Amino acid sequence: MNFSSKLLEDAVAEFAKLPGVGQKTALRLVLHLLNRDKEEVHKFSTAISKLRNEIQFCQTCHNISDQKICEICTSHKRDHSLICVVEDTRDVMAIENTNQYNGVYHVLGGLISPMDGIGPADLQVDTLVERLKDGVVKEVIFALSATMEGDTTIFYLNKRLKQFAINISTIARGIAFGGELEYVDEITLGRSIVTRVPYENSLS
Question: If exposure means fewest CB atoms within 10 Å of the residue's CB, which of 19, 80, 99, 149 is most exposed?
Fold first, then answer.
């Protein structure tokens, strides 16, 4: 692709680094920004810069947050005896959109995947174990994608958490194997939370 401006070429190259964005789409986005008011483009670039520089991760659940402890973890309206374990922030958002869950979360930051070199030590597993030591938590729900990596992670976590006198459950499999939570419709995801089953039962 030939460019009439080095500035244009550099901007397109940066946009093209985004997932799912090719050079043609990147060019279309950059040209769109060029046609907007300078103030509007400044707001856009400032928002991205602040996101990268000021965003935090909740010290309790590891969800993306504006504060050291996120709003969900500090809310007195949430059931802190119930922890839903998810892969990342997108899954928290998906479950929150169902309006079927009132507990708190624990974001692992990924799934165990030996093929990709991701092991338990790369995830937020130890902090999950620490959260269970004070006896407040009564149930942990595994809400991980119905994939080989998700099942492997659940199997490992179940072994780590067996030492605690808590209920361990997993979302009902109304979700097809191989499906990722962020792509599941809200009704199906909501029902899978409500109709969760003991993890041991899901193995049979």
Answer: 19
Taking the C-alpha atoms of residue 198 and residue 57, their distance in angstroms, rounded to an integer, is 30
Q: What phi, psi does 25 have (nearest 5°)?
A: -65, -40
| Alpha-carbon span 185 to 58, nearest angstrom | 27
The DSSP output letter for 21 is -
CA count, 13 A, side-chain hemisphere, 99: 0
Helix 186-194 × helix 89-96 angle, to 10°: 90
Residue 165 belongs to some domain of the structure: yes
> Cα angle at 190 between 172 and 108, to 5 degrees?
70
Residue 164 or residue 181, greater confidence: 164
Residues present in the chain in total: 204
Q: For residue 79, what are its two tokens?
A: 């059931």
Domain count, the chain: 2
Look over the chain and give the mean of its residue pLDDT values, rounded to a whole number.
Answer: 89
pTM for the full model?
A: 0.77
**Do the beta carbons of residue 112 and residue 142 sit within 8 Å?**
no
Confidence at residue 146, expressed as pLDDT on a 0 to 100 scale? 80
Which residues are CB-contacts of 55 (< 8 A; sequence separation ≥ 6)? 64, 65, 66
pLDDT one-digit tens code per residue, 24-54 = 999 999 999 999 999 999 999 999 999 999 9
